[in-house]
Amino acid sequence: MNDIILYKGEHFTGENVTFNANISDLHVYGFGRLMASLKVEGHSWVTFSGPQFEGDATIYRNGNYPSIPDEKRFASMKIMKNMGAPHITLFAKINFDGPSTDLDEHTPLPSGYKVASYRVRSGAWCLHEFQDETGKKHVAFKGDEVANCQSIGFENHPASLKPA
């Protein structure tokens, strides 16, 4: 079982709905940014503040979440399954150019290291604006190719990456 159960009330009360596949717009189901609690059974889920898997991302792992703060409520979500062991290729220049680095584990990047583009070979990755994993966060999935990190909202380059 790999379900996410959304509830309109805190502590798993009120109207609820169960999903087991990616949902690009929860508004269609009457739950867009309206969930107040949730349960994850099985694989983790990545949620996005906007529809079409856009906006701020949050990862929910197997477990119960009795209260979801307003700023963490979401409009779309993806299940994290069948992604394989994490592997990402980073490029120093846009359009997959310049020196490249392959990673398969959590890596705070050296000060001054610039990731201008990337390709996710397998798994899912969290990219963070700062080395302490704060600031802007982006979740990248197997098959994602970003030719310019500025296109995903990083004015500066990601400073830390870790497998999701």
Task: Reconstruct the topology from this structure.
Layout: E1 3-9, E2 13-19, E3 37-41, E4 45-50, E5 54-60, E6 63-65, E7 76-79, E8 87-93, E9 97-103, E10 107-108, E11 117-122, E12 124-128, E13 137-141, E14 145-146, E15 160-163
Antiparallel strand pairs: 1-2, 1-3, 3-6, 4-5, 4-7, 8-9, 8-11, 10-15, 11-14, 12-13, 12-15
Task: Using brief descriptors, characterize the structure shown.
2 domains, 4-stranded antiparallel beta sheet, mainly beta, 164 residues, Gamma-B Crystallin, domain 1, elongated
Plain-language structure description:
By secondary structure, this protein is mainly beta. The protein folds into two domains: 3-79, Crystallins (Gamma-B Crystallin, domain 1); 87-163, Gamma-B Crystallin, domain 1 (Sandwich). It is 0% helix and 47% strand. It has no helices and 15 strands. It has strands at residues 3-9, 13-19, 37-41, 45-50, 54-60, 63-65, 76-79, 87-93, 97-103, 107-108, 117-122, 124-128, 137-141, 145-146, 160-163. Strands 2-1-3-6 form a four-stranded antiparallel sheet, with no helix packed on it. A hairpin with an 8-residue loop joins β12 (124-128) and β13. It starts with a strand and ends with a strand. The relative contact order is 0.16.
